[in-house]
From TrEMBL:
Protein name: Kinesin-like protein
Start-end of Polar residues biased regions: 1-10, 48-68
Biased composition (Low complexity): 11-25
Record's compositionally biased regions (Basic and acidic residues): 293-306
Gene Ontology biological process: microtubule-based movement; mitotic spindle assembly; spindle elongation
Organism in which the protein naturally occurs: Papaver nudicaule (Iceland poppy)
Sections of the chain in a coiled coil: 434-659
Cellular localization per UniProt: Cytoplasm, Cytoskeleton
SMART domains linked: ARM (SM00185), KISc (SM00129)
Similarity-based family: Belongs to the TRAFAC class myosin-kinesin ATPase superfamily. Kinesin family. Ungrouped subfamily.
Residues binding ATP: 160-167
């Protein structure tokens, strides 16, 4: 909803004149391209930005080249749907006639003031009570959905009095009957059918505006989500809201079921399932397509561009809001009180703010009060903004609600005067291209760093190995040097021995040469002797002897020479063997060195592995040591703080007791003029009203008496913190006065959070467990019942054993007023499904049913209310699919108790019992118990005799859908 009074007001004034005479929403809008992006990754909730801050990409294009304006006005389309007459309308037919007359063929509606006067109104479409869900969707929502698919923002909203069918029109799931599906499911079905799951993105957020606080229905832990506005573009976003990507319709239905289970609803006189919050479904669509420049080039050029990475995609980003507003209601008709009264105030306040904005836009006011409510801030783009908007208003035909129907119709008439400026958000996908390049650069940088790190690690490892190898090589080299020196010495010895043998052989050769010379001389001498033989015969005999002697010596020398030759050959063989041995020794040494090097490598690798493991173990031990030291320091600090806190609380308690004794003295002095102290205290003790209303809050009627205002004023002066501290006093009288003061303070919703923060809940539970006084039991139980109305306090009560204490009190007392307080507290806890199992385990359900034996009507009324709360939560969980199995109530005999008390005279008690039976019967697992106990007959009676139409319809539906019940009815 726009809040700028400049260009927006001018556009409204220019187009308002033709808004009622022409259907501008059916025109083809002019395309524009916006370069604004959402930093959160999905389209935020946007308002219409200031025209001076709007940014347009250089390639913006318009559908009409002769028109320089980039937008076209589109009036808000409004349709009317009339709810069929319900049972209350039929029952009151004698007193009230229909005040609405429909003319659907003329798209007109007449609202009768009386029998002779009526006002006529024209709308874009008028639906009768027989209009189908499909026709409502195609007329009201489908044009908006098609615009959203094409890139425009859109809004579909339902407005009307509570109980007129807004949630049925918008959020009906139609699990069993597809024809009953509402606008929400049908819209997502069309969107998913017209988008590609691979190229396009569809995301949703589901929120509720409850008590002027935005809560996430898909993630209930996210509460009070802030609304952020971009100061430059004027766009509105919801940081922190959960955004879920949708793959198919089944996933969407599951998410909507989860959201509906977390949405606040209540039972009022106007509607048994009245929505207490505004529900907003946000659908974000992002579609990708080739840009115009890429489509105009030839296929060959486009292929070349794509191969070079120059093709550019365009993105269409759009947003669809489906808004199910909570119904406006009057307190006198809805019967809201207590917490529901606060809900009604916030609902009506936000709807009033929305109506003010519609009035301002319809009147072309210069100021649009969009900041009066969070609802109008979230919808600022839907009225007077840039979204195509369709509004369906729902009314009832009965004249009993003439004022509400008239107000709803006038709201629709004013909304028809609002004109929006539609804009197409189209932008080049620079972000995805930049992201892709950044990812590539990051990958390359990381790969480069990784490779560099690997190289550095390899270098360091190789250097370490090289140093180790050098050391090992030095050791091997020294060993080889020693062995080589040994072999060299041996070789020298063998060489010297060989040289000696060669010298001996040479000497022997020289000797042989000498002998050869002697033989030659002897032969010459022999010849000469033969020559001289003739000369002298005397010399022949001597010559023969000499010759024989020399021949013998020659033979000996020849034998000696042969022996020396054999010795030389043996020496040569021995030398060859020595050389072979030396060669073999060198080869074996090389193999041994290689084997030793391999062994050293294996040992080095094992040592590295052991070292790495040792380093990792050391790091882990070091980390554990640091964590242990940190935990030790934290524990020491916490122990010291607790010690100081306990000391301070002890001093404070003593101080409070002293002050209270002073206050008692002051009370005695104040009442001396009217009576003695004991009579006044007795009067104060008896003035606490024991009853609860529909919301089970303590009545503070005792403050209207004469003596109580003085005590209340004293407690107000003392303060809540000191009053709660008095609950821990050892004086019984002090405890009684303090617990009464806390109980009356707990009756106000504004005081409950303060009481819990100051430890009041813990003190009340302590009193229940430790005190034996009946008055303390009654008043403390009432205070806990008041605190148990808050869902946050319910979890605290259960976690601190409150249910077990309440069950114990119920078993100890027979006082009807105390039992009523205890039953009311347990009944409030039964309204929280998360606590059902704990209530069963702590015996609270058994104790609640056991209190029915008192016979007191007020106690029975609270028991019936607790059974209805418990059964309703179980039924909701069963229908939504996250709870299975037989009801926990049946194990403690709840069904016979409900049947026995169906005939009670109290209409409120009877209504709660009937609701409990109908909700229990909706679970198929409970059907055998209903059949075996004969409870089906009671359901048949409820379906025809119940005083409430909604309960009769619920009973009929339950009997119709269950086959076992049908068989039992036929018998």
């Amino acid at each position: 909803m726009a809040s700028n009074s400049g260009p927006k007001s001018l556009n409204r004034s220019q187009n308002n004149g033709s808004s009622n005479t022409s259907n501008n929403s059916d025109k083809q809008v002019i395309h524009t391209t916006s370069s604004s992006k959402s930093s959160s990754g999905h389209p935020p909730v946007r308002s219409k930005p200031n025209s001076a801050k709007r940014s347009v990409t250089p390639n913006s294009r318009a559908a009409n080249p002769n028109n320089n304006d980039d937008s076209e006005p589109a009036r808000v389309r409004v349709a009317v749907r009339v709810r069929p007459r319900d049972a209350e309308d039929l029952n009151s037919e004698a007193d009230y006639a229909d005040c609405v007359e429909l003319q659907p063929e003329l798209k007109r509606l007449k609202l009768r003031k009386n029998n002779w006067n009526a006002d006529s109104y024209k709308f874009d479409e008028v639906f009768t009570d027989s209009a189908s869900q499909r026709r409502v969707y195609e007329v009201v929502a489908k044009p908006v959905v098609e615009s959203v698919i094409n890139g425009y923002n859109g809004t579909i909203m339902a407005y009307g009095q509570t109980g007129t069918g807004k949630t049925y029109t918008m959020g009906r799931l139609g699990k069993h009957d597809p024809s009953e599906r509402g606008i929400m499911v049908r819209s997502l079905e069309d969107i998913l059918a017209n988008t590609s799951p691979t190229l396009d993105t569809v995301e949703i957020s589901y929120l509720q505006l409850y008590l002027e606080s935005i809560q996430d229905l898909l993630a209930p832990e996210k509460n009070n989500i802030p609304i952020a506005e971009d100061p430059k573009t004027g766009e509105v976003s919801l940081p922190g809201a959960a955004v879920v990507k949708i793959r198919d319709l089944d996933q969407f239905l599951q998410l909507v079921q989860i959201g509906e289970s977390n949405r606040h609803a209540a039972n009022t006189k106007m509607n048994t399932e009245s929505s207490r919050s505004h529900a907003i479904l946000m659908v974000y669509i992002q579609r990708s397509s080739l840009g115009k420049a890429d489509n105009e080039v030839s296929p060959q050029d486009r292929d070349s561009k794509r191969s070079m990475g120059n093709n550019m995609n365009t993105l269409h980003k759009s947003k669809l809001l489906i808004v199910d507003l909570a119904g406006s209601e009057r307190i006198a008709k809805s019967g809201a009180e207590g917490h529901m009264l606060e809900e009604t105030k916030f609902i009506n306040l936000s709807l009033t703010s929305l109506g003010k904005c519609i009035n301002a836009l319809a009147e072309n006011s210069s100021h649009i009060p969009t900041r009066d409510s969070k609802l109008t801030r979230m919808l600022r783009d839907s009225f007077g903004g840039s979204a195509r908007t369709s509004l369906i208003i729902t009314i009832g035909p009965s004249a009993r609600h003439h004022a509400e129907t008239s107000s709803t119709i006038m709201f629709g008439q004013r909304a028809m005067k609002v004109v929006n400026m539609l804009k197409l958000k189209e932008e080049f996908d620079y972000e995805s291209l930049c992201r892709k390049l950044e990812n590539q650069v990051d990958y390359l940088i990381a790969e480069n760093e990784r490779q560099q790190k690997i190289r550095e690690d390899d270098k360091e490892e190789m250097e370490k190995k090289l140093i180790e190898y050098r050391n090992s090589f030095a050791e091997v080299e020294s060993s080889l040097d020693a062995r080589s020196q040994l072999f060299e010495n041996e070789n020298n010895r063998l060489v010297s021995e060989n040289q000696r043998l060669l010298d001996e052989l040479k000497l022997q050769k020289d000797r042989n040469d000498v002998l050869h010379d002697q033989v030659a001389r002897l032969e010459m001498s022999l010849k000469q002797s033969k020559q001289n033989q003739l000369e002298g015969s005397s010399y022949q005999k001597m010559l023969a002897d000499t010759t024989q002697m020399y021949e013998k010596k020659i033979a000996e020398l020849m034998e000696q020479i042969e022996d020396e030759h054999s010795q030389i050959e043996r020496a040569e063989d021995q030398l060859a063997k020595v050389k072979q041995m030396l060669s073999d020794h060198q080869k074996s040494t090389e193999r041994q060195e290689k084997q030793e090097i391999d062994d050293l490598k294996d040992k080095l690798q094992k040592m590295c592995q052991v070292y790495d493991k040792t380093v990792n173990d050391f790091q882990s031990l070091k980390t554990e040591n640091v964590e242990l030291l940190s935990e030790k320091a934290t524990s020491s600090e916490e122990l010291q703080k607790l010690t100081q806190k306990l000391s301070a609380e002890e001093k404070q308690r003593k101080h409070m007791e002293d002050e209270f004794y002073k206050l008692k003295k002051m009370v005695a002095e104040n009442v001396n003029g009217n009576g003695d102290k004991s009579s006044t205290m007795k009067e104060i003790n008896g003035k606490v009203h024991p009853g609860f209303g529909n919301s089970l809050s303590f009545s503070r009627s005792f403050q209207q008496r004469e003596a109580i205002p003085r005590v209340s004023k004293i407690f107000e002066e003392v303060g809540l913190e000191k009053t709660i501290a008095m609950l821990k006093s050892q004086d019984l009288e002090v405890q009684i006065h303090a617990v009464k003061a806390v109980a009356n303070l707990a009756a106000e919703d504004s005081n409950q959070e303060k009481i819990v923060e100051e430890g009041g809940l813990d003190a009340l539970l302590m009193l229940l467990g430790s005190s034996e006084n009946t008055t303390i039991h009654r008043v403390a139980s009432g205070a806990i019942a008041n605190l148990a109305m808050s869902e946050k306090n319910q979890g605290l009560i259960m976690s601190k054993g409150g249910a077990h204490l309440l069950a114990s009190i119920a078993s100890k007392t027979d006082d009807p007023q105390t039992l009523r307080m205890v039953a009311g507290a347990i009944a409030n806890l039964c309204g929280n499904q998360k606590l059902h199992a704990s209530l069963k385990e702590d015996g609270a359900i058994k104790a609640l049913l056991g209190m029915g034996g008192s016979g007191n009507s007020d106690v029975i009324a609270q028991i019936a209310r607790g059974m209805a709360n418990f059964a309703k939560c179980e039924s909701r969980g069963t229908v939504q699919g996250y709870r299975k199995g037989r009801s926990l109530l049946f194990e403690d005999g709840a069904l016979p108790w409900l049947i026995d008390n169906c005939a009670t005279n109290s209409s409120s008690t009877r209504r709660h019992i009937e609701l409990a039976l109908c909700h229990l019967a909706q679970n198929d697992e409970n059907a055998p118990d209903f059949v075996s106990s004969g409870s089906v007959k009671e359901l048949m009676r409820i379906s025809s005799e119940s005083t409430r139409e909604d309960i009769r319809n619920l009973a009929k539906k339950t009997l119709k859908l269950n086959p076992m019940f049908q068989s039992e009815m036929e018998c």
